[in-house]
Amino acid sequence: MDGRKRPLAEVLTPDDGFKTPEKRAPQPGLLEPDHTRWGVEQTGRYLRAEGLGQWEDAFREQKITGVGLQYLKDADLEKMGLQFLGDRLQVLHSLRKLWLREAEPNKVFNDPVHGHVELPPLLLLFIDTPQFQRLRRIKQLGGAYLVFPGASHNRFEHCIGVAHLAGLLVQTLNQRQPELLISRRDALCVQIAGLCHDLGHGPFSHMFDNMFIPKARPGITWKHEKASLDMFDYLVSDNQLQPLMERSGLVLPEDLDFIKEQIGGPADPGGRAAARGREWPFKGRPEDKSFLYEIVANKRNGIDFARVCEVDGQKRICTRDKVGFLVGFGTR
């Protein structure tokens, strides 16, 4: 055996030793991920990458940087020399995509149904709280796992899946229908609502609502949606998340109202709003963005991503063949 071994000196050369990898310098052709740090040059590079290079000189003359891009409106572009409406809409469509970009890297979760999913850093602040972590111990299907061992998925992974799917739909709408003017604030609020919509579930999920509460407290009406709103308020207050939400670009209390209205509906439903002559019962967003209220918890017809993700989790017990169809249904 020794005769078959090559001498160590013949195997190793001075270049064979271990070397610490050097930090790679950013490539000059790549844009800074945070568009708010772009200067005039990087703004022009972005326009060229989007196929809008013919308007680069107009942006340079006005010294438009990355900070100003998200504030540009149709009238501003017209003053800059973009005379045709089609050209202005094309520029606005490209700029709207910046509203959904995140300066910090997203957090990656390995979801058992949807695979690797990315969530914005702000959502991680909600996930890393005791109030949200308790969902790890609440089974999605109540006591079904005692009969079907595979039915052991929990509310924690379900809520992450809803936040992921809701984010996908908002991004798809923003790309395909820029005239909807979906902002990054809208996208974050929809994802937070999807993440926190089940915070108020008790032990064994719906079994707690439908069986335990009626027997233990027959005189009261208790719903997990109302408990979710109370738990959400407590989570934000107890963990002092309001300053961090504002730092991420949210506007309070308007966006807090919007998140809670997506979970539990309008705070003043029905008669009281109509009596005051106000037809639109929501405070968080105007009526032209009513479609955002139908993504997480659709009070109109019940078709929403909370239901889609719940079906996805149940199908995981038997098969995963139709999960792609369900996700495709939601994003078409």
UniProtKB/TrEMBL annotation:
Residues 38-101 form the SAM domain. GO terms for cellular component: chromosome; nucleus. The gene is samhd1_0. The keyword Transferase does not apply. One of its GO terms (molecular function) is GTP binding. It comes from the Eukaryota. Keywords: Allosteric enzyme, Antiviral defense, Chromosome, DNA damage, DNA repair, DNA replication, GTP-binding, Hydrolase, Nucleotide-binding. Gene3D superfamilies: Hypothetical protein af1432, Transcription Factor, Ets-1. It comes from Liparis tanakae. Belongs to the SAMHD1 family. Residues 16-25 have a biased composition (Basic and acidic residues). Its main location: nucleus. Residues 1-35 are annotated as: Disordered. GO terms for biological process: defense response to virus; dGTP catabolic process; DNA repair; DNA replication; regulation of innate immune response. It catalyses: dGTP + H2O = 2'-deoxyguanosine + triphosphate + H(+); dCTP + H2O = 2'-deoxycytidine + triphosphate + H(+); a 2'-deoxyribonucleoside 5'-triphosphate + H2O = a 2'-deoxyribonucleoside + triphosphate + H(+); dATP + H2O = 2'-deoxyadenosine + triphosphate + H(+). This is Deoxynucleoside triphosphate triphosphohydrolase SAMHD1. It is found in: Chromosome.
